[in-house]
Model the fold of this input.
Amino acid sequence: MTGAAGDAVLPGPTRDLLGEPFRLDSISEVPAPEGAEGLWQQYVIVQGTNTIKGLRAGTHAEVNLQVESMVERLNERFRKSQTGLAGSTGRKPPPRVGRQDAAARTTPAVVVTAAPSDATSTHDSTSLSQSKGS
Done:
């Protein structure tokens, strides 16, 4: 969708979510930067009081396509970041009561102790079966 000046205009719900979306404000031909040649355009993107200025090589039409695509991506990124913050107060949540640090939460090692071995109290299976059968 485009507005009166040919700028991209987002549908109603997106406008509400973003507050004010990014939009292409202007493109104008400027002299090539030092060391560069060819046609160069300066573009201005605005969002509320924020302003992004940049230079691109190319004709007005080429730069317009590139910058319109950039504006769409900016609005998509901003929209995604805003949906992640829905319901957020912007503050870090308070720590949970009784929370332990990672070292304290590790499972203790299982310790198995064996009864002391006594040569007189140990039996092997052959001696037991022989004594039962006798």
